[in-house]
Amino acid sequence: MKMLLLARNHNNAIKQVSYSFNLNSKIKTNRILLSKYPEQGYVTIVRFDTDRALKIDASYADVIVQMRKYMKVADIVDKTNKTFGEIEDLILSLFENNFIEKIDEFVLFDNSEKIKPWFSNLNLNILTRVLNLRVYLVIIVVCFLIIIGSVFYTHLIPSFDSFFWHHDLFISFVSVFLFGLYFAAFHEAAHFLTTIVIGGKARINFVKNRSLFLVYETESYHIAVAKKSERIAVYISGITVDLVQIALAYLLLDLNFSNVYFDSFFQNAILLFILTGVLGILWQCNIYVKTDMFNVVEELLNQSNLYEDTKCYMVDRLADSKNILLRKLYKILKPFINLKSIKFEADNLTEMSMDDKVLIERYSILVFFGGLSSIVILILFVFRRDAEFLLQAIVRLIILIPEYNLFSIFKEVLIISMIILYYLLLGLSLFRSLKHKKMRNKLLTRSVNN
Question: What is the pTM for the complete model shown?
Answer without folding.
Answer: 0.81
